[in-house]
Amino acid sequence: MECSDTAYEVSLVLSNRPEAPGLAWAAERGIATVALPHAPYGKNREAHEAALDEALRAHDIEVVALAGYMRVLTPWLVGRWSGRMLNIHPSLLPKYPGLDTHRRALDAGDAEAGCTVHLVSEGVDEGPILDQARVPVLGGDTPETLAARVLEAEHRLYPQALGRFCAGLD
């Protein structure tokens, strides 16, 4: 992503999964794409992340906005992009970092759930919170129905939070 006077422009969509829908979305809009599967790197996470970093730098990326990237990043990559890598997570952090957030909120009897945009740090979903959106938990909710409402909130929140973040980089 490049930050500019209009806050930001999506200039690359990169995924470790060649079948990721975001790659097709980007290609349809003429946005550069890179599919870089991690499997060929075996257990060498650093080598895969070095290739990711090389692709990001080759495309002059200024800010990385993670969405649906379901791998824990090494301290090396997090450090390379420190203060310039954001993530969106489907819970009201610090509640429910990691996986199965909607089930956990329902099991806890929470009255509300939501999503959080945060800076990426070495810990899982522990970075500084930039913004949150809340949605009510409704009677009869299942993890799937709650996830659908939270996803709608994510789609509204992330572009707004990215715009404010990039505007603050000037």
TrEMBL record:
Domain (Formyl transferase N-terminal): residue spans on this chain: 9-162
Catalysed conversion reaction: N(1)-(5-phospho-beta-D-ribosyl)glycinamide + (6R)-10-formyltetrahydrofolate = N(2)-formyl-N(1)-(5-phospho-beta-D-ribosyl)glycinamide + (6S)-5,6,7,8-tetrahydrofolate + H(+)
Biochemical pathway: Purine metabolism; IMP biosynthesis via de novo pathway; N(2)-formyl-N(1)-(5-phospho-D-ribosyl)glycinamide from N(1)-(5-phospho-D-ribosyl)glycinamide (10-formyl THF route): step 1/1
Active site: H89 (proton donor)
InterPro entries xrefs: Formyl_transf_N, Formyl_transf_N_sf, GART, GART_AS
Enzyme nomenclature, EC number: 2.1.2.2
Keyword terms, alphabetized: Purine biosynthesis, Transferase
Residues binding (6R)-10-formyltetrahydrofolate, per UniProt: R45, N87
A Pfam family reported for this protein in Swiss-Prot or TrEMBL: Formyl_trans_N
Hydrolase recorded as keyword: no
PROSITE patterns: GART
Gene Ontology terms describing biological process: 'de novo' IMP biosynthetic process
Site (Raises pKa of active site His): D125
UniProt GO MF annotations: phosphoribosylglycinamide formyltransferase activity
Domain of life: Bacteria
Cellular component aspect of the GO annotation: cytosol
UniProt similarity note: Belongs to the GART family.
HAMAP family: PurN
Function summary: Catalyzes the transfer of a formyl group from 10-formyltetrahydrofolate to 5-phospho-ribosyl-glycinamide (GAR), producing 5-phospho-ribosyl-N-formylglycinamide (FGAR) and tetrahydrofolate.
Name of the molecule in the record: Phosphoribosylglycinamide formyltransferase
Organism: Brevundimonas halotolerans
Encoding gene, per UniProt annotation: purN
